[in-house]
């Protein structure tokens, strides 16, 4: 029995080390996290968003994540507006996501549901075009926007206290 316990301890330690080093559920290193709030006519929803503002950060996005907290997501910021045909893809993204495309004022122009792509190459993954000109995009867990009744015309507000007092 003693040998079995020792073997179990070695396996558990090895699994813990692998889990910590694999980075699958870890955020991108060094990204700022901001408190924000989606505001609609029916209320507000507080969220915490990692901000991807460089080409490399945006390219990596949420790749490799196995889970995200229900109120967590990623804000993609662009210096210049992107056209309606510009889209996102899900290469190496393991969790289903919703995306909201926002104008420079944070107003939602469109939302899409995006499924993980199992293709071994990026060329095998579909693109999810915005359908509207946008300056920002927010990815959240799939179902987030429907669950909170958020859509076109609603707004993302950022700042120290982004949600209105209720």
TrEMBL record:
Endpoints of the signal sequence: 1-25
Organism: Marinobacter subterrani
Keyword presence, Signal: yes
Protein name according to UniProt: Putative conserved membrane protein, UPF0127 family
Keyword Ribonucleoprotein applies: no
Phylogenetic lineage: Bacteria, Pseudomonadati, Pseudomonadota, Gammaproteobacteria, Pseudomonadales
PROSITE patterns with a match to the protein in the record: PROKAR_LIPOPROTEIN
InterPro entries assigned to the protein according to its UniProt record, in alphabetical order: DUF192, Saro_0823-like_sf
Keyword set, alphabetical order: Signal
Pfam family, one: DUF192
């Amino acid at each position: 029995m003693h040998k079995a316990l020792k073997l179990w301890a070695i396996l558990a330690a090895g699994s813990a080390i692998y889990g910590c080093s694999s980075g699958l559920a870890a955020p991108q290193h060094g990204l700022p996290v901001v408190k924000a709030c989606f505001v609609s006519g029916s209320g507000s929803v507080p969220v915490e968003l990692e901000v991807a503002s460089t080409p490399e950060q945006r390219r990596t996005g949420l790749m490799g994540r196995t889970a995200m907290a229900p109120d967590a997501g990623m804000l993609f910021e662009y210096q210049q507006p992107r056209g309606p045909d510009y889209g996102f893809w899900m290469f190496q993204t393991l969790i289903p996501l919703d995306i909201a495309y926002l104008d420079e004022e944070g107003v939602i122009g469109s939302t899409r549901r995006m499924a993980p792509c199992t293709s071994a190459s990026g060329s095998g993954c579909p693109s999810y075009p915005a359908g509207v000109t946008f300056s920002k995009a927010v990815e959240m867990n799939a179902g987030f926007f429907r669950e909170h009744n958020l859509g076109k015309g609603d707004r993302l507000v950022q700042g120290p206290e982004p949600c209105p007092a209720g």
